[in-house]
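Cross-posting from the modeling subforum.

Setting up a comparison between two proteins and wanted a second pair of eyes on the formatting. Protein 1 (sequence, then structure tokens):
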Amino acid sequence: MQGSLNILFLHSIGKAKFGGGEKWLLNAAEGLKNKGHTIYVGGRPGSVLLEKASQRGLQTAGFNILSDLSPYHVFKIASFIKKQSIDVLITRDRDLAVGGLAARVAGNTTVLVRHGLPLRSSFRKHSFLLRRLADGLITNTRTIRDFYQEKGVADKEFVKVIYNGIEPEDHSPSFDFKKQFPGKKVVLTSCRLAPQKGLFYLIDAIGLLKNECRDLVFFVLGQGKLYGKLKAYAEKKGVSDMIRFEGFVENVRPYLKGCDIFILPSLYEGMPNAAMEAMACGRPVVLTEVNGSKELVPDESVGMLIPPRDAEAIAGAVKKLAGDRELSDRLGRNARRYVLENFTVAQMISSLELYIKDKRMLKRGT
């Protein structure tokens, strides 16, 4: 099929929320727009997502979806799809019921679902909706693809692995940690403050290190519902002087450039964008061996993988990197090279566009 497509990204995340999935959406939408397609981003009115989409020159539409079953929004979105002649709807699993039904009501729109994290609950419901309402599924790791195939939800043609992409360079200067913490090595974490990210285990690990590694300081960038609990837990463990909770940071790249070690102790993951960005900055990374992390760090020459839920493993990995400059520098160089060879935005957009066009051709029977 030749020519451009009209594509709607539907994503009803909370107004104040913005994370890896939302960053992927905007990169994908902007990249497809630059390829000549007409792009719309649908989400909650007044949301950070729509604000950032507008800043990138993307057209937006407000859909305040609050439940899986909303006839009003089904017909509202269906009307939008008809009016704008939407060829392809790309949505997330939580919006599939409303968005998928709207696409079916509207006509011959191709429906693709993007799933960036392992499914944690409601599998039977989700698999039912996928079979009935979706024409394809995009994920960012082989482990999630294999999960769906093993469950018999979809064959290899239905699920497509498209790795997240990053922009390899920017002109941000490195954050000067040394000015604030002279003589310290900085261990950085950047993530939502949510149970998934395993930050209580990180605090436990700092407790194990506090007596023999006083030259370490830990920075946590991000916001979330666990902010207060994590600060209180650090106080309880007696490590509040070694850890700084900086809250939300708009541009994390200077912090990644300025830190000595990046760590993400997640309990489960998709493809962790923050870790990928740290690797692109030449930082050595410590990741838990879960899901997409194993594809981002395929062997010990690129980074360090440790078991999840293991404070001793976290402490051991940090201590090893902090005490071995040659190892730290080598892993950082290898990490940067590996990411820039395999995880660029250009590669992501090319794969996404090809998959969308293939699915559209199948839908139209051409």
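Protein 2 (same layout):
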Amino acid sequence: MLVKIVTTIIYPDKMKKILILGAGTGGTIMSNKLRKELDRNEWEITIVDQYKTHYYQPGFLFIPFGMYTKKDVIKPKNDFIPVGVNVIFQKIENILPEKNQVHLSDGVVLSYDYLIIATGTRIVPEETEGLKADLWYKNIFDFYTIEGALALGNFFKTWKGGELVLNIADMPIKCPVAPLEFVMFADAFFIERGMRDKVNITYVTPLSGAFTKPRTSKVMGELLQEKNINIVTDFYISEVNNEEKKIIDYNGIEIPFDCLITVPVHMGDEVISKSGLGDDMGFAKTDKFTLQSAQYSNIFVLGDASNIPTSKAGSVVHFAAEVVLENMLCAIEGRPYTAAFDGHSNCYIETGHGKGALIDFNYDTEPLPGSFPFPGVGPFSLLKETRMNHYGKLIFRWIYWHILLKGKEMPIDSKMTLAGKKIAEF
């Protein structure tokens, strides 16, 4: 006879509570950092997420081109959450900040002294008329989800060529360089398959250039031109015509496609707006320096869930986590905040044929040429195509699983430095 033993852990009333919403990159990093810093006899830490699988989202880019498989980008979330942190896999129903409570879909109510919102962002293809219709996952694909990336990979296996159009519906989006990487990867992919002359690639963006930052936009625009990739700017999509296979913007401009790669509208988690914490797009209103909620002093926001004016990228989460940790400790100890986030972000940009570029910037400083992370040494080059930058992108997957998620130290300061950068070249 099998006897099921149920263990209930009862925490003393005097224990303070930290609640983390979201066990993605940001939430997982914070669970590790906080558990190391705070006394287990004084602080209870709980992390809540609806899903049990952790995705290495930068790897989605490689799947359509056969470089990664599904198993390369997924692992159980439990593998990265430290001992001593309570884990609850349940949908978050509502946040009641006035009561310091979070309600879950199963009726459980969690209280907190401090709350960290790390619920990320989601794609919402339904926001664009006709996008998620008859041709969805037949001739229209996203690569920002595992399902979309896998479906596109299967499509490319037998596609004979035609008009390949990548369209960004609106900004902000996760990893703003990923669409650029995709079209440059596509160029190399079809060259290697001996059918580049059968594929016309067009990059369609609502921006006035290839990227959000003018200097990087110039460099990336020149790269696209070199690779014979068309670019259409200032295109705000209004609808997708499935019957005639074309996208149409609000000015009536039409672009035909045989294969449409969409980067759909991004929004914050639905619970953020439902709880009165979000802006018009459902991103949590956040002080861009302290990373506190703009409304409640005991709530901090990390990563893609926030509305701070910087890239929604993994590097931002990593750098911002240091600021959230320091300021939370200040709040706990009743001290003035000693950390301020400068918007630091860096991104590897795959450019195809075993090469890549790298950019490093913050709120005030655009990407500049130079060496990274060590001045004059590198080994990576900024705003320049090199093989080493490509290797950096590939190595990052190991770093992500083994160092970043576990909250370990890396040799890169959370604040951007001008050391090693060549300002005079621009």
